Amino acid sequence: MNRRAFQWTHRVTYAECTLGNHVYYARYLDILEAARGEFFRSLGQPFLRWQNEEVLLPVIEARIRYRKAARYDDVLTIELVVTELGRVRVAFGGRMLDESGESIIEATTVHACTGLDEKPRRLPDALREALQPFVTAPEESK
Amino acid sequence: MNRRAFQWTHRVTYAECTLGNHVYYARYLDILEAARGEFFRSLGQPFLRWQNEEVLLPVIEARIRYRKAARYDDVLTIELVVTELGRVRVAFGGRMLDESGESIIEATTVHACTGLDEKPRRLPDALREALQPFVTAPEESK
Amino acid sequence: MNRRAFQWTHRVTYAECTLGNHVYYARYLDILEAARGEFFRSLGQPFLRWQNEEVLLPVIEARIRYRKAARYDDVLTIELVVTELGRVRVAFGGRMLDESGESIIEATTVHACTGLDEKPRRLPDALREALQPFVTAPEESK
Amino acid sequence: MNRRAFQWTHRVTYAECTLGNHVYYARYLDILEAARGEFFRSLGQPFLRWQNEEVLLPVIEARIRYRKAARYDDVLTIELVVTELGRVRVAFGGRMLDESGESIIEATTVHACTGLDEKPRRLPDALREALQPFVTAPEESK
């Protein structure tokens, strides 16, 4: 009800497509990464600055459902919410919609907070607070 | 016990890596696709020939667990089994191991058999028969 | 003096970077393609509509000079001009600048106008006229 | 006459293709990088070991002529020769042939030897000696 989602748009390029005129299945993950980057920037501190503070968020799990093919030159709307916000783990639920509002993909990426040494560490409080307004129960993200 | 897995190896390139010297999370899906291509070739009929017979197998779902980062120049062993073999759906379980035998990723890709019109169609019998020896209960693929 | 350049900006993602924190040398061509797509859209008719009229512009030659590494999260400004506008051939000169105005790459892509059969055909007059204001002598594009 | 070329083969994947069933123009550079990696390995010391000795060879210039489209599942033969072997600079001439022996692309990549600080340094003598047998006058590489 109070759910907030971060929104971002992306125009599909030839580089992202494969035979049969649709986006190659792995490229959606590239687009999701770009959207997460803009999400974090919108929260006030881009990934790069967290990285400089030795906070990394590598993906430990990804799940994608492909609903409908996106085509060259389509404008996709990417919506991101937070589906899990633990001490070390954070998960983002995402979906991409085409211009008619139909779902292209639904995806979840689960991240672990680590240091530059790739060992787990607690999510910084400032990051947790910034993400809190976007937390959504998983069932709502469907 | 009678489980059969298709095996293939891949050498990690700079193109596949990102900052921090590890394979970018989406590139594992590119590598899995290349491995599936070789799996099908080993079964006697490459994807290209199925495509010429108007049989496509687009991915409708993908799930990946990232266990350990693969690095530039690592040689990865990809193992593929069949975890689901329905009338229209087929799923492949895959894992990648590094040279020390440690698991890099575990992944499942679920595919729907379609025609060139992107509408569902039955998996051809010849394909089903070729895949049958590789069918593994999902729990065994872990 | 009367030179016009199309300008577009792009934010560097992890997907585009490789070891050592710089954009992988091939990814600049992906970014140039996205910029050309926006250039054509700004001229009134996106590539997709030319394609629907059976006009393609495949790249027949590309030359890139790498001046300085672009890094993750950098905002690149891409400038495109037309350096050749023949009956069948068209070439685009491009350069990417970082936020301090320093040159990241300079590039030329040469394209041949073809039909869907991949055979050469004349550039449509409407396309030639739209590109004319951006024609720059090659030496000026340096 | 005494020309030696390094040869390597590559099978085209869906990930490398775009609309119209041909390899996307930037992906040939990914394939060339993989081939250079194998070339260096064949000389006795892979890039990774040079990198560990603080010797990098970033690309400072790339030129590609696209002759014919490579398609999904094509097997490409990549041939590499050395077209320049200076104190700091080294250039590789490459071409890709399809199974009928027709030229797909011809390419040159120019590299500068640098340290991890990205500053120029002399090519190590051992590397120069290993590359010497592959030196070809540029006109011969056509």
Describe, in plain words, how this protein is organized in 3D.
Four copies of one chain form a homotetramer. Chain A has helices at 27-42, 47-52, 125-131; strands at residues 6-11, 17-18, 22-23, 59-66, 75-85, 89-97, 103-112. The first copy, chain A, has 142 residues and is α+β, with helices and mostly antiparallel strands. The first copy, chain A, has one domain (6-133): Hotdog Thioesterase (Thiol Ester Dehydrase, Chain A, Roll). In chain A, strand 5 and strand 6 form a beta hairpin. In chain A, 43% of the residues are buried. The model of chain A has no long low-confidence stretch (mean pLDDT 94). Chains A and B meet through helix 1 and strand 4 of A and helix 1 and strand 4 of B. Strand 4 (59-66) of chain C pairs antiparallel with strand 4 (59-66) of chain D, so a sheet runs across the interface.
